[in-house]
Design a protein that fits this description.
Number of helices of chain A: 1
Oligomer: heterodimer
Distance between the termini of chain A: 45 Å
Strand content of chain A: 5-15%
Strand order of the largest sheet of chain A: 1-2-3
Number of strands of chain A: 3
Number of domains of chain B: 2
Distance between the termini of chain B: 68 Å
Radius of gyration of chain A: 16 Å
Number of helices of chain B: 7
Shape of chain B: elongated
Order of helices and strands of chain B: HHHHHHH
Largest interface: A-B, 12 and 12 residues
Radius of gyration of chain B: 22 Å
CATH architecture of the largest domain in chain B: Orthogonal Bundle
Helix content of chain B: 40-55%
Shape of chain A: globular
CATH topology of the largest domain in chain B: Helicase, Ruva Protein, domain 3
Largest sheet of chain B: none
Order of helices and strands of chain A: HEEE
Number of strands of chain B: 0
């Protein structure tokens, strides 16, 4: 189910603050973050985030198309290395 | 046979059914369109006059995305997801369910016909 429009998109305030701070100073450094639930807003475009997936940080360069998605969508939390019986490759 | 929206040639079914043969028009929209065009539901498609046909066509043109255009739109949306490498895009790429369904069993619609693995028996046997 979608989120109520009344509330607007959820944006992690601390992260948003960091972005604005970098914007003011005119620098674009990767921002390490655990805020996977944070919606990508237009202000984020052009920034690089290091999004935590529970283990490591994935580099996510935010492009215009990504607006409206959550940061977590770009940092997969599971790894699938194939099934144990898969000997076909040998 | 009447031609509606370009290529579509629905047969001698009732109009509201015939309209659902157009990609992007279901029973609900079909009825709405007929209401707007002021055509009775029960009329057979072959009994439609040219005037009625053009009325339906113009309504379709004006208000709805159908057929090729709709297909293109859907594909574009999917390829957008694939390009930005988000979770949903990855699921599309791998041909797995996109909306969080379980995949341990079933999910055959997305995964396609079963691929039997030779020599694979029980999990127990593999461990022993």
């Amino acid at each position: 189910m979608g989120r109520s429009l009344k509330k607007g998109p959820f944006v992690d305030e601390k992260l948003f603050g960091k972005v604005m701070k970098q914007n003011d100073q005119g620098i674009r450094e990767p921002i390490k973050t655990w805020a996977r639930r944070c919606t990508i807003v237009p202000e984020f475009v052009g920034f690089t985030f290091m999004v935590h997936n529970g283990k490591m940080f994935h580099k996510v360069y935010v492009s215009e198309d990504m607006v409206g998605h959550k940061l977590g969508e770009f940092s997969p939390t599971r790894t699938f290395r194939g099934h144990s019986g898969g000997r076909r490759g040998k | 046979m009447p031609r509606i929206a370009g290529i579509d040639v629905p047969n001698d079914k009732q109009v509201w059914v015939a309209l659902t043969y157009i990609h992007g028009i279901g029973p609900c929209l079909s009825r709405q369109i007929l209401k707007e065009a002021q055509i009775g539901d029960a009329v057979r498609a072959r009994e439609l006059t040219d005037d009625e046909l053009s009325r339906i066509n113009s309504i379709l043109d004006r208000n709805y995305v159908i057929e090729g255009q709709l297909r293109r739109q859907t594909n574009q949306n999917i390829s957008r997801l694939k390009e930005i490498i988000c979770y949903r895009g990855l699921r599309h790429r791998r041909g797995l369910p996109v909306r969080g369904q379980c995949t341990q069993s079933n999910a055959r619609t997305r995964k396609g016909p079963r691929k039997t693995v030779a020599g694979k028996k029980g999990v127990k046997e593999m461990r022993g």
